[in-house]
C-alpha cells in the first residue's frame, strides 16, 4: 500500500495561490490572503476538488451589502 500526500492549492480570480501553511484551515488561509486581497473577507471557500494530485480550493466572492 502506498500513501500519497496531496498538496493544496487555492484559486481566486483566475490566480493560483500557494498554501502558506498546510496546518491552517482553508478559512485561515483565506484570512491570510485577505491582507493582499481585501475582498476575500466576504468570500466563500469552496472545495476541495482533486485535480492532478492536488486538493484545489476556490475562493468565491461573497455578495456585497448596501448601506
UniProtKB/TrEMBL annotation:
<protein>
    <recommendedName>
        <fullName>PRTRC system protein C</fullName>
    </recommendedName>
</protein>
<dbReference type="Pfam" id="PF14454">
    <property type="entry name" value="Prok_Ub"/>
</dbReference>
<dbReference type="InterPro" id="IPR022289">
    <property type="entry name" value="PRTRC_protein-C"/>
</dbReference>
<dbReference type="InterPro" id="IPR032866">
    <property type="entry name" value="Prok_Ub"/>
</dbReference>
<keyword id="KW-0614">Plasmid</keyword>
